[in-house]
Amino acid sequence: MPPLPADLTPATLTLLVVTTFVAGLARGFSGFGAALIFMPVASALIGPRLAAPVILIIDAVTTIGLVPGAFRRADRREVAVMSLGALVGVPSGVYLLTHLDPLTIRWAIIAICAALFVLLVSGWRYHGRPRAPLTVGVGALSGLFSGASQVGGPPVIAYWLGGAIPANIVRANIVLYFEVSTALTLLNFLVGGLFVPALAPLSLTTAPAYALGLWAGTRLFGVASETTFRRICLALIALAVVIGLPPLDDILR
């Protein structure tokens, strides 16, 4: 197996693993927030072109067990319509990730995460009934964010959570859509040459921390109130945005 990147110091690796655990914790409790927490910090530590495939791989592997239940409960037609937008959005996002300067990508990730943080804090939700053109548009926007930075969740959540769809179907829709989006992103990352040898040791190193975070987050769901933990997740996202600012690289490293 290829070794870890030579410039990854023990302190940097420790911070990466801790960040991965916290990202898994947020994902396990709330169903979102992992990439919003992981990407700003990990992009500063290992670069966005390594960070994005790492979170994609470990999330895909550790959440695969959610698919059968979601497939049974989801409105599969609605998920398919949104996935049509992702077919366009994901390749566009991957193109940006592979062709823009890494520092530009990092600033873009910070800007996207900050904007989505504001969206989540505002509590805004789309309260109308889902319409096919709008659903496709949300899928395209989510796919663009996913392909470029793995932060495609909030547009979908804001769109589906506020509508007239029953909560259990909404959750199943979100899980199933993210799995479709993940499959599309995996394919486009492969075509874009983002699966480099260094991903294997990085994924194997961080996956246990992510899985532990998922497990702990799921257990915490029944202990802390949803309002309290939502606030904690949002605070962690804000902290990750600040820590991930390029001018603070010397502190992180």
UniProtKB/TrEMBL annotation:
Q: How does it sit in the membrane?
A: Multi-pass membrane protein
Q: Which residues form a coiled coil?
A: none
This protein is called what?
Probable membrane transporter protein
Q: Which organism is it from?
A: Pleomorphomonas carboxyditropha
The record's subcellular location field reads: Cell membrane
Please list every transmembrane segment annotated in the UniProt record, as residue ranges.
12-38, 50-67, 79-98, 104-122, 134-151, 157-178, 190-216, 228-248
**Belongs to which family?**
Belongs to the 4-toluene sulfonate uptake permease (TSUP) (TC 2.A.102) family.
Q: Which domain of life is it from?
A: Bacteria
Q: Which Pfam families match?
A: TauE (PF01925)
